[in-house]
């Protein structure tokens, strides 16, 4: 096992699906010892899209480097096991509904009585207060209630219902980054003061945070926004269907689409490429690379509310699009690189497995799983020179470390046998 900045820190994890497991995996990559507690059947992500009994790519990608402890937490004996472990733990992470932790005797007040300087992360969907406090929630629900989904504006063509952001579970994965960030801050505070504390993270709070300027009330700048939202409210009151609401809201997504050659994707002869230019200096480089004097949204006389002007600009953009289609992606990338335009090819995730840039920066890590053999995963997200991060091994088969963990907590082999016979451990 490689060491890291959190070498020596012990984490007891009561989480499942994405946010909590990803957060604890990131702690493990930093060198913490993470004990993942699962029920006898395994957490749900083990069972989803299994490629072999008890194993799925989803689970393996979110639980590497952990120890697996099987406890049937509804049994008081299992709760006793958890209580015996807690005094040796630095951090507990839980993502059950607010009512579940107390019922299982692993709530903050119960566990800090066993270790006063404990750092306890309580991750919920919506927070512990308010009318939604006891509601369960997954990423798709957080997307919906936070505005992420409607702001994206995707609609199923057949059902006319809203479509989720499906390429990545935005709120879940972002919360999985917030969790270790918060834990590291709490550990630093404990180092200075000796105090533990309760950390509360939520999918809703993360989903609001990643939207940033959209969840920002600024009266001096929001006249257009307020008008649009008044129109949306009127449509809601009138019982308008969801697509009409999205159309009305669309004004806030920007009116420059038809006149934009600077920050967008382009169809090429053999694929697609995107450019991202967000300054006048870069706009000039884009025009030079494309061989055009077209200004579009960069025109100081531009009037996006002038329909005739917008139609003229759209026609000019279509001609440039046709020119771009005459060259391959590699040809355009060479031109953009020569002119200093930020650009990249549009690729599928799996194509990155053998990408030379990814390989040069060691962004993938080879691992060996006890059951499924060799694999490559995304490496830790950042590097540290003095305390290097490292994947601490592949994910564990269900219950692999139960006996060793119980023995370290003082249980005799005969006691472990009794607990297993009673179905308390696995």
Description of the structure:
The protein has 426 residues and is an alpha/beta fold. The protein has 3 domains: 10-210 and 362-421, Crotonobetainyl-coa:carnitine coa-transferase, domain 1 (Rossmann fold, 3-Layer(aba) Sandwich), CATH 3.40.50; 220-253, no CATH class; 257-349, formyl-coa transferase, domain 3 (2-Layer Sandwich). It has helices at residues 19-29, 44-47, 57-62, 76-85, 98-103, 108-112, 139-146, 148-152, 170-193, 203-211, 223-237, 242-249, 280-290, 307-324, 329-339, 356-360, 402-408, 413-421, and strands at 10-14, 33-38, 50-52, 55-56, 67-70, 91-94, 119-124, 197-202, 263-267, 272-276, 343-345, 364-369, 373-378. The strands form 4 sheets. It has a 6-stranded parallel β-sheet. Strands 9-10-11 form a 3-stranded antiparallel β-sheet, covered by helices on one side. It has a two-stranded antiparallel sheet with strand order 3-4. The longest helix has 24 residues, at 170-193.
């Amino acid at each position: 096992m490689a060491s890291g900045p959190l070498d020596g820190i012990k984490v007891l994890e009561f989480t499942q699906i994405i946010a909590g497991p990803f957060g604890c995996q990131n702690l493990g990559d930093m060198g913490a010892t993470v004990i993942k507690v699962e029920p006898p059947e395994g957490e749900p992500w083990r069972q989803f899209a299994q490629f072999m009994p008890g194993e799925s790519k989803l689970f393996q990608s979110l639980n590497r480097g952990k120890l697996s402890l099987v406890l049937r937490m509804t049994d008081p004996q299992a709760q006793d096991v958890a209580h015996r472990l807690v005094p040796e733990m630095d951090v507990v992470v839980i993502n059950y509904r607010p009512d579940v932790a107390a019922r299982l005797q692993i709530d903050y007040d119960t566990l800090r009585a066993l270790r006063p300087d404990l750092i306890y992360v309580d991750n919920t969907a919506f927070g512990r207060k308010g009318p939604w406090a006891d509601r369960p929630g997954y990423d798709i629900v957080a997307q919906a209630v936070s505005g992420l989904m409607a702001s994206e504006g995707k609609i199923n063509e057949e059902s006319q219902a809203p479509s989720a952001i499906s390429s990545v579970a935005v709120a879940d994965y972002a919360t999985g980054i917030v969790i270790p960030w918060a834990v590291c801050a709490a550990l630093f505070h404990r180092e200075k003061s000796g105090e533990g504390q309760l950390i509360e993270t939520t999918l809703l709070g993360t989903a609001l945070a990643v939207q940033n300027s959209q969840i920002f009330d600024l009266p001096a700048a929001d006249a257009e926004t307020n008008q649009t939202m008044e129109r949306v409210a009127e449509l809601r009151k009138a019982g308008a269907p969801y697509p009409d609401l999205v159309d009305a809201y669309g004004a806030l997504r920007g009116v420059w689409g038809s006149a934009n050659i600077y920050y967008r994707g382009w169809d090429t002869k053999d694929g697609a490429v995107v450019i991202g230019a967000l300054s006048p200096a870069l706009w000039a480089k884009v025009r030079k690379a494309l061989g055009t004097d077209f200004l579009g949204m960069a025109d100081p006389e531009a009037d996006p509310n002038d329909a005739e002007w917008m139609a003229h600009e759209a026609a000019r953009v279509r001609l440039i699009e046709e020119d771009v289609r005459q060259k391959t992606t590699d040809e355009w990338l060479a031109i953009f690189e020569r002119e200093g335009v930020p650009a990249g090819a549009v690729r599928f995730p799996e194509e990155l497995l053998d990408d030379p840039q990814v390989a040069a920066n060691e962004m993938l890590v080879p691992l060996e799983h006890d059951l499924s053999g060799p694999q490559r995963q995304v490496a830790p997200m950042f590097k540290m020179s003095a305390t290097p991060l490292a994947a601490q091994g592949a994910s564990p088969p269900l219950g692999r470390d139960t006996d060793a963990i119980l023995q370290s907590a003082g249980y005799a082999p005969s006691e472990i046998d009794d607990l297993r016979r009673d179905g308390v451990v696995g």
